[in-house]
Amino acid sequence: MRIHLRIFLASLLTLIASLALGPAAFAENDPLPSWNDGPIKQEIIEFVHATTDESSPTFVAPAERIATFDNDGTLWPSHPMYTQLAFALDRIKTLAPEHPEWKTKQPFKAVLDNDIKALAAAGEKGLVELIMASHAGMSTAEFEKIVTDWFNTATHPRFKRPYAELAYQPMLELLAYLRANGFKTYIVSGGGVEFMRPMTEAVYGVPPEQVVGSTIKTKYEMKDGKPVLMRLPDIDFIDDKAGKPVGINKFIGRRPIAAFGNSAGDRQMLEWTGAGSGARLMMLVLHDDAEREYAYGPAKGLPNTKFGTFPQSLMEEADEKGWIVISMKKDWARIFSFEE
Amino acid sequence: MRIHLRIFLASLLTLIASLALGPAAFAENDPLPSWNDGPIKQEIIEFVHATTDESSPTFVAPAERIATFDNDGTLWPSHPMYTQLAFALDRIKTLAPEHPEWKTKQPFKAVLDNDIKALAAAGEKGLVELIMASHAGMSTAEFEKIVTDWFNTATHPRFKRPYAELAYQPMLELLAYLRANGFKTYIVSGGGVEFMRPMTEAVYGVPPEQVVGSTIKTKYEMKDGKPVLMRLPDIDFIDDKAGKPVGINKFIGRRPIAAFGNSAGDRQMLEWTGAGSGARLMMLVLHDDAEREYAYGPAKGLPNTKFGTFPQSLMEEADEKGWIVISMKKDWARIFSFEE
To answer: At A217, phi and psi to the nearest 5?
Structure first.
């Protein structure tokens, strides 16, 4: 019920604001032009005022203005598969000439044959094998170059554009709006830290030290008299589900006051954020726009998915706790910067 | 040899600067008043000019101005024992009434009897047992309170003052000077992240998200309907020796351009910092002042120690690689803010 009351109050404030300022003045100063006017956009603006206006009873000191964003499905698409999985599959194909044994060995054979059914049958164990073969065995500097080169050439299968151009325009505006108001914006993703860092600054304006994610172990070694960090085929930390509050506490050491996600993997991050005192903003992106992007749930009867599942139980928790669910279809005037 | 040439050139620059400005003007603008004038102080100032003056060929963009500082023995004393060990021993004594079995069980008995010999005999395994018994089994919020309360009441056995007052004044000036020049200052310590965070902002001006250190595992749980992170008796990461570059890469994701340490535990951090291109500043604090603080090595024939060992091999690597060794006795006009 709480969310409905808040949305009602926010609507009332929108109305008052537009009457006071007139529609022209309102549009001119709009920090979120790709968000459709309405209660959700207004909730964001109200939250920023409530936490940054020094006369507000819920004012938050700049150092404590921490906002955390999931990446896949929250800031850019996670369909038809996670971007990092697309990278891993491409990498396996690139490395295949050096590994003739992969022609007959699963799960590598499935990748080389583009056999999605066999790939799915390999399960999580197979996935870890693919990640390790494509993400370990090189230095951190070499891996950074491999990832950067891939982002410079790879394109999304549906949108036929580099992944960097697929950042959601409304979320880019939200990131910029929060930063302009003294917030420190962090990525907190299940994706690999060193897969994300080569692009987060250019794409999202988030510097490397503000990227929290999954890690594999690295080892300090001397190679030709120079120190390197070698990436080992050994998982260090999985920054997903209950791992997200753990990662936030480990890397940031402060509880966020705003958190943005889109799936069951973000549930605990939103719970952790919401459990603090004072003004809080928790939002979930619902992918309900098959025309402009994708539609999946299975919440609200949308099709089920393996990438970025939004279960009905998450929708119920959102309703109960006052988390705001963003409908891509209704709330976003445009999704990508290249639209129109 | 390189270091000698640099010190000679720096001396020359000090001379020219003092001739040009006159001693009064020089003293007035001194950002490092607790450092004795001389080549080492001048090296620091020259490095800051070289990296922050836009006309300098070695100019560094603000975002890349990362400086990492070891804590124990670099920013405050590590004798007669690491501060965190003093905390652990106090904590064991506080908890003893709830653990009658400790009266007869090592290494706890040794702590309760103040039996240093038996404590030493318990070795590293014993130490880990003490750390786990004192640092795990509570939530992160509870631990933060325990640590904060301890820092508010505990005093150093020799200096009879709260630990927070024992930060080295020259290093506080150095931290402030670097930050005033757009550097981001990080703690990179073998100490526990959550033991340090409750005091780093007040004592060093370093916020929680810029503290890299050792961690124990934490687990996200619901307790009375509220989420908590429970501290488990299980080591997650040791941020010492070869672990320091690993920690720097994991948490910061950028290579520092300046690094400050005092012991064998900092060797790899300085190597990693020095292996980057452009202007670099690597410094080691040598504790050679038994009168005002402590004197230990065993480098340069100083007494050996278990807390913050500075071996002769580190001195040789410093000389070979141009790392600057700070003599507390000669280079620091005062060590603590409460002196005089």
So the answer is: -70, 145
| Interval A122-143: pLDDT, tens | 888 898 899 999 999 999 999 9
Q: What is the Cα–Cα distance from A269 to B158, expressed in whole angstroms?
A: 45
Could B229 and A218 be called an inter-chain contact, meaning their C-beta atoms sit closer than 8 Å? Answer: no
**H/E element, A269:** helix A267-274
C-beta atoms of B253 and A227 within 8 A:
no
| Amino acid, res. A95 | L
Q: Which residue has the higher pLDDT, B9 or A63?
A: A63
| C-alpha–C-alpha distance, residues A267 and A269, integer Å | 6
Q: A244 near A269, Cβ under 8 Å?
A: yes
CA distance A137 to A53: 50
Going across the sheet that includes A226-237, the strands are A226-237, A211-223, A184-192, A66-69, A258-261, A281-286, A324-327
Tell me, yes or no, if B223 comes closer than 8 A to chain A by beta carbon: no
Residue with tokens 């002196």: B339
Distance CA(B71)–CA(B77), nearest Å, equals 9
Q: What is the pLDDT of residue B49?
A: 98
pLDDT digits (tens, 9 = 90+) for B282-326: 999 999 999 999 999 999 999 999 899 999 999 999 999 999 999
For the record, the structure tokens of A339 come out as 């639209």
Segment B176-189 mean pLDDT: 98
**What are the Cα distances from residue B260, in Å, to A169, B23, B33, B176, B186?**
42, 29, 19, 14, 10
A207–B contact, CB cutoff 8 A: yes
Question: Has residue B26 got a pLDDT over 50?
Answer: no
Amino acid A254 reads R
Residues of A in contact with B207 (CB under 8 A): 63
Predicted TM-score (pTM) of the model is 0.91
Cα separations in angstroms, A247 against A78, A214, B139 = 21, 9, 15
B207 has a chain A CB within 8 A of its CB: yes
> In angstroms, rounded to a whole number, what is the distance separating the alpha carbons of residues A69 and A76?
11
The stretches of chain B forming alpha helices (DSSP H) are 2-28, 39-52, 83-95, 108-112, 116-121, 123-135, 140-153, 169-180, 193-204, 243-251, 267-274, 312-321, 328-331
* Cβ–Cβ contact A223 with B under 8 A: no
